Amino acid sequence: MSDERPAPDPAEEVKEERVTDADAWATACAEDLAAEKARRRAEQGPPPGSAAEELRRLVDTVADKLSGLQSPLLGAVAGPAAQQVVRQVVQQAKAAVEPVIERNPDVFDHLAAAGNELLAAYRSAVQAQEHRWTTGADDLKDDWTDRRDRGEGTGPGERIDLD
Description:
The protein is mainly alpha-helical. It contains 5 helices and no strands. The protein has 3 domains: about 15-45; about 50-105; about 105-145.
């Protein structure tokens, strides 16, 4: 038997280098992505949770604020009793809201999405109207003059077209 090893196949070496390069590229990309996510988290804070989690946090925050509220109108005598009543009402409200959030977390996500859609539609309508106001000022003046001359649009019940 011979101690000589067979000569390596050049095609095999190229395949190994490409696999190693691809792994290095994927690793570098993953590291860059993780670093960018960490930078954004540090800059902007943690990403918001689901709508149900946000509602739960809102209820907790409002409950804490109401529970810690001091009422100067009730005086020192009624103050502790009033605070106890406020705490009790807050606890009852939390007890009523919590099961609804637990049973229907997706509903709150859908409501949040619907609210975003309504806001986008409103914003679009306002921007379109503002664009008409700012670019068509002479057109509006001529239209107003023509309608006034015909006796239209002079009453207090004039309909304003927002389209």
